[in-house]
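Bench notes, afternoon.
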Amino acid sequence: MIPINVRPVQIIGSCPAGLTYQDEFQLVGLRLENRADSRLCFLAISQIPIGQGIWQLQSNKRFFSHVSCPSCTVRFDQERRVIFLLGHADKWALCQHIAEYMAQNQGQAEPDAARQAREEAIHLQKRGAYAEATHHMEIALRALIL
C-alpha cells in the first residue's frame, strides 16, 4: 500500500478541534499514523473517503486529492471547516505545490509563464517524471506569485 499523507490546506473560520496548518498525519493501508503528535478531529477523519478516495490514491489512479470535513455549524455566515490535502508520501512535495498553486490561482488571471510551467509539469507527471514535475510546479508557483 502507498502511504498517504494528509494535512490541512485551508481552514475556513476556526476549527473547534484546534487543527492548524502544521498538523499532518499519514494513512498506511487503513491505519492512521500520527508520528508528529498532531491534533486529530474524529469528525474530520471520518470524512476521508476510504472507499473511492483512498482506493484511487492507493491504486495509483490519482496521486493527490482534496477532501473537506463538514462544517461544524449550520449557519453559513459562521462556517467552520477544514479542507485537507491527501497525497502519496513519495510525491508529497509535488502534491503540496499543486495545492498551493490551486489556492493562489483562484480568481486571478494565470500569467503565461506560470501556465507554461504548469502545463509542462502536467506533461511530466503523465510520463511519471515526478521529480522534474515538482521542479516545474515550483517555477509555476513563483511565476504565479510574482
